[in-house]
Amino acid sequence: MLKISFDFDETTKKVSNLTVTNSTSVTVKRDTTGKAIVEVTANKLIISDTALAFLDANPEDRISINYFQESKEKTFPVIAKSEYFTDKKAGNKLTKSNTVSFRGNQRTILLEYGTVFELQPFKEHIFKLAPLNDSDSEIVSEELKEKFINKFNEIPCDKLFDGRNLSMELCIEDDLKKIGLSEQNIYSLKLCTHCEKENKLFSYRASKGAYGRLFAFVYIK
Fold first, then answer.
1. CA–CA separation, 91 vs 82, rounded Å?
2. Closest CA to 53 of 33, 37, 29, 77
3. pTM greater than 0.70
4. d(Cα 144, Cα 35) in Å, to the nearest integer?
């Protein structure tokens, strides 16, 4: 970033003492919760200070995400400095702004497990990425939260979000109304795949990876 400074004489309308300096300061997004959090954004991972302390990582260290298969049905992501995995040159470098470049197929795969994770001890120097989801809502990163607030601006923010928990039900209802469906024809069973106890509903996050399949049918009556 270039910083330009100068003196301007209002009487003579002349500029003097023009200097151009290179500023190397970096604005770091800090997590104030004190949790070891990793967020998946559009093209990078944002790693909280606490998570970096767990990983013992510094700028220029390479960070990798691999997947551990616990059973035939259950696989989960793990994170560590690349030197603690087989390929020390894998992964991407940590920047001074607490981010790691994360694009393409690697991002697509991780998004199948969630968007916001908390580090949990797994093996020495290696940590499990546990999805943060404890209700029928979807936890999103701060970056995505702003996008949802802008898109669904007719829904009060305190109803659309509870902290970083997004109400998927309200989003779906809003989309249906915008395509012309009458509110009188929108029905909700008020069943949550994550927290439902009486009915057997599969939830990836509730089952920690051991899950089945649900089918949805859309038709015109």
1. 6
2. 37
3. no
4. 19
